[in-house]
Amino acid sequence: MEPVTRLDHNGELPLLDFPYIIRWRDDRCTRCGKCTAVCPTKAIVPSVMAQRLVSSESPIPLPNTVRKVTQIVRQVTDIDHFCTGCGTCSLVCPNMAIMPEYNPNAKLLFHKNRGGIPYKRGGRRNDPQTSTLDKLKFTRISMLTDPALDAGRHEFHIRTLMGRNLPAENLPLSLQNGRLVVDSSSFIPPVREIFPIRIGGMSIGALSPPMWEGMAMGVTYLNEVENIPVVMGSGEGGVPPRLLKSRFIKYFIPQIASGYFGWDEIIHALPDMIEDPAAIEIKYGQGAKPGDGGLLMANKVLKLIAKIRGVPMHVDLASPPTHQTKYSIEEAVAKMIQSVSMAWGFRVPVYPKISGTKTALAVLNNLARNPYAAALSIDGEDGATGAAYNVSLDKMGHPIASNLRDCYLELVKQGKQNELPIFAAGGVGKDGHLAANAASLILLGASGVDIGKYIMQAAAECYGDEKNRCNLCNTGKCPRGIATQDPRLYRRLDADRVAQRVVDIFKSAETELKKIFAPMGRSTQLPIGMSDGLGVSDKAIADRLSISYVC
Amino acid sequence: MCRLSALTSNDYFSVMDNIMALETMKEGHDGSGLGVVLKDIGGEFKDLKEYPILSGICTEKGRKKIDDYMDQAGFKVKFMWEPQITESASSNVKRRGQYLTTAYQYPEAFLDKPEHEKQALLTKTRLTLREIGEQDNCLYVFSFWPDIITLKEVGDPLEVGVFFGFDKKPLKAKIILAQGRQNTNYAIDLYACHPFFLQGYSTMTNGENTAYLPNKEFLQSRDLQGYGNYHSDSEIFCHTLHFSHKILGYPLPYYKDIITPLKNNEIKDRPDLEALHLLKKSLRPLCIDGPNCTIGFLPDGTVFMAQDSKKLRPGIVGGVPGRYALMSEECGLEQAIPQRKQENDIIPMRYDFVIISPDAQEATVWNQLQG
């Protein structure tokens, strides 16, 4: 018997199942069509509707009914065109006639697997709860026993070290006429002094040209004009050849990952490089999608990207989940670090980046024994990505706070807490508290932190949030022009403005860090591991992180 | 706030000299206690230089535990001294037990052992006794080292001095560090009272060390004898001095470079700038970063004063060849050495490190910027 779905629409999804419901106001809409043209998912379409209009023009009510067909803006109920709530429609609307509204009763995940393809997206783990980092408070305030410092008047040195610090017992020093002299024939690992908040690895390819260039310009300005030595990761996918051969490469951290994209170009540029990079990051994992590889879609592989990555245009670029040529941690860590170090004559710090995991301690212990390992970077579960399966984003990974803390305390046990710096990432600035989150991680033992999603949100107004708003980075249709290679989209983004915002963000973060460290009486050195300055009103968190419980 | 009173001389002087100087600085401390470390001791100890002296306080029960342990370890009592305790109704100082100042002969097996083995034995003995005492607070051991006496007690420094009978039976030495306060910010614990002592090195500090935890964790993780069981953030200063001077073998001024490192742009004029850059990185967790004036001595009798990198605590040095005082305040200096030329007094600022040579012959100011 033929089902009656055709008649009662039972096979269709009601709007109430969708994560955002479009509020469209007939009375305000001028039918200009901008909203439907700009919608990145085609969730709204121009449509028509039969309307029954009742009016009365006489002195006494004398209803006159007219039936007519009018143009409307209709939200589609196709799950592959669901409204992501980005709100670009409301941005372009001249008459404030349209706005997506969050629907907490949505059932997106029940339906978004049509064709047997699981839901894929960009962004962060969809968890709008207050993160552990945001629960931490700075509770050790210097006052009468030890005068608080003045963030505005005293000198502060908000800097950290990126690179392996030799233990004092092993420094190649000798005494000559009562002064210490360095034996220059000994190997001294390279160490950079940098600002403790870095821009984490986001690739050219994943990011649009104006976004990447804007950040790069901002970082350069911060270094050369503001004297704030911020460094920026390249992500996997190489570095523009002109930048490689310029003096500005010293502010960048090229990343080598499992696809090795761009590295042929980098190696060939070596003879022409006039400066060393800040460091080299070997990516083994990413907090947003631990154990998963990457994919740059063919439609993002345009001329510039193909040239930088050394690949043909318009092909899917898959990075495998692991480095295919390596079969053990010893090989992966020791051999890669040493061979990459050798390429720059052991003048550049080389370190691995892993995703937060219970096995981080095993990696850490390997690095602690490897004299060439410059640091360990751990990316927690709240890190973001340009593309991943939703299940990886939402359910895979380890929170950064306890992962970092365990690693730091292990180093303390070994007496190597100053020797091997740990950089922490994943959810830093998730709720906008950039400096506070960074300071918390530093007090828990991080030498510095990485940000990614935050910089896109703050510098380029990325719509994404933890209620799954937008998160279209993987589609190449980023409505802000941040994560796309489509010139029609990225021309919306002004690289100079991004640069200006990057400068604003780091200048204000430096001031806020001073405002945190000054009352704690710390100014000369970054308070790495000063966990007695932290408190939390959750006993379980306090116990787990070995910090004070306060209430 | 703590008040510090250090004297160094080429002749023996009474610990009352330090206490009277503390008395003049009374407005700056709360009169809650006294801690003294004496080095190069005179009187009855003048001819006992090579015998380690056990300094501490114990109950009857504690005394027995000490005797049993020392007997079993092979130490033999060489000489016993006790302060002439004078309790009075007007004084708030209460007798805690026996005040031990006992010189021992090394166990026979150690008599011909190299110096470092003897030193390790002394430190191990002190730590073990302390551990025994911590079970029921029956004994406190502050130092066990040749030619060193440590006394600590709760109460007004002058009253404590009178209580110990120093006004009648003076205890004399050539170097004495004295500090006039217990750690009254928290529960009073005699182990938290300055000065602190480890293997010939001693310091006392006015201020609070905001970098205490990273400092402490770094020192503890060196896995060296004596670095542990911290009861005060100021104990860090003594162990950092020991670490830099004895373990790493750096000349004394590098202590200042470690606890208050220069900024990178300030290092450029130092002749040893390369080494300094390395030191700054490798010893980053020992930066104190707090408001501190630190006074200390080395095993060779050098006495010094260092200020924090923002000069947030008072300190003054002055004297005449043969007798120098390092005090928190000028009134203390005036009390201790009135005959000095006041215009030669040194008020060290943030880059200054004042060093008094052994036998108190000369005071020099080492400037961190020039090296």
The level 1 CATH classification of the largest domain in chain A is Alpha Beta
Rounded mean pLDDT score of chain A: 93
Can you tell me the number of structural domains of chain B? 1
Q: What is the CATH architecture term of the largest domain in chain A?
A: Alpha-Beta Barrel
Name the helix and strand elements of chain B from N-terminus to C-terminus, one letter apiece. Answer: EHEEHEEHEEHEEEHHHHHEEEEHEE
Q: Output the CATH class name of chain B.
A: Alpha Beta
Q: Which structural class is indicated by helix and strand composition of chain A?
A: alpha/beta
Low-confidence stretches of chain A: none
Main beta-sheet annotation of chain B = 6 strands, antiparallel
Helix content of chain A: 25-40%
**Strands of the biggest beta sheet of chain B: in what spatial order?**
7-2-8-1-14-13
Helix count from the secondary structure assignment of chain A: 18
What is the largest interface, and how many residues per chain? Answer: A-B, 44 and 44 residues
Radius of gyration of chain A: 27 Å
Q: In the CATH classification, which architecture of chain B applies?
A: 4-Layer Sandwich
CATH topology of the largest domain in chain A: TIM Barrel
